[in-house]
Design a protein that fits this description.
13 helices; seven-stranded mixed sheet; about 40% helix; about 10% strand
Length: about 325
């Protein structure tokens, strides 16, 4: 009974994982700087990808995004956009790219050193003697900030190497266009693990706007029965920008993910970062900090800073109660 329900819960998740698997499986040497083409299996050639029926791809992806099989440009700047999904390794990704010294547009740049009222896009290092972290003077964590960044010409300015936001569905159509296309990066996590992590994290995360101390009084099973349903199909609804969708629309999303999303898995973090780096053209030849940063986060396993950031220890689902799986959380 439990097994049957588990299969039902993960039906659509597994479909997405099939797409993820197309791009992620294969040997990757952490000591090398792989090209983007090396991540595409022989059975998935650019010719095959280009033969996807045009109407099966979301128009905004065709207009605003660069296909995954196209190598990074050597002649002009490309901006990546990373969808920061809560409790899916996004904070670690932030630290990795700040270590590389690339210019990051997230929620902090506008508020460090009072850049809220700037009238032009700049990139700056707030603490040059302590850190090579480079920010762009915008806040892309909310719609108002994204609109302001658009008015200032964030993407056309070429000042941002990577935009990190929790609102990709709004940022894509607002910041990018057919003349300034971006690379879409996403790191995903097994959905039940993510929700369990979110449940425990928001009980103690006093610094988060979504802090929920009242959840301390609930068991995981009680919480799943009262709240988890609202997270059903979270990723699909978020990128579609609506709560209801048909199977045909879901198929369209799968094709869009296949062709335009550079997908990583949280439980394969190093391999995922390698893929993101390949899409962004970051390697030992283009970035002087590539080797020390990769070593710090992935290769030197004895170094404490190589551990996950913003992690929160909590019991695992299998250690609590298998009846949790009787609640439909996410497809």
């Amino acid at each position: 009974m439990v097994a049957a329900r588990s299969i039902e819960i993960f039906q659509h998740w597994m479909l997405l994982c099939l797409i993820v698997g197309v791009f992620l499986y294969g040997a990757i040497s952490p000591s090398q700087s792989p090209s983007l083409q090396s991540f595409i299996p022989e059975t998935l050639t650019p010719r095959f990808l280009s033969e996807v029926v045009p109407h099966s791809i979301y128009p905004w992806a065709q207009l605003d995004l660069i296909p995954v099989e196209k190598p990074p440009s050597s002649s002009h700047h490309e901006t990546a956009i990373f969808w920061h999904i809560p409790k899916s390794g996004g904070t670690t990704i932030k630290h990795v790219y700040k270590c590389f010294g690339v210019s990051v547009a997230d929620k902090f740049g506008a508020h460090i050193q009072h850049h809220e009222d700037d009238t032009e896009i700049i990139s700056f290092q707030p603490w040059p003697k302590k850190s090579r972290t480079t920010y762009v003077n915008v806040d892309v964590s909310n719609k108002e900030g994204i609109l302001h960044a658009s008015d200032l010409g964030l993407v056309p300015s070429d000042k941002a190497d990577i935009i990190i936001t929790t609102k990709p569905e709004f940022a894509l159509g607002t910041l990018f266009d057919k003349s300034h296309k971006g690379r879409f990066l996403i790191l995903v996590r097994e959905p039940i693990d993510r929700l369990v992590s979110l449940f425990y994290y928001l009980q103690v995360a006093t610094w988060e706007m979504s802090y929920r101390p009242d959840w301390k009084n609930l068991s995981l099973l009680e919480w799943s029965q009262k709240h988890a349903q609202s997270w059903r199909d979270f990723l699909v609804k978020k990128i579609m920008g609506k709560d209801e969708f048909t199977e045909e629309e879901f198929e369209q999303l799968k094709q869009t993910v296949r062709k335009y999303f550079v997908v990583g898995l949280m439980n394969e973090m190093e391999e995922s970062v390698n893929r993101f780096n390949a899409a962004m053209g970051i390697n030992e030849n283009t970035n002087e900090y590539y080797k020390p940063c990769m070593s710090k986060f992935f290769w030197d396993h004895h170094h404490a800073s190589g551990e996950a950031h913003n992690s929160n220890e909590h019991p695992k689902v299998r250690e609590i109660n298998s009846s949790f799986f009787h609640t439909e959380i996410i497809r």
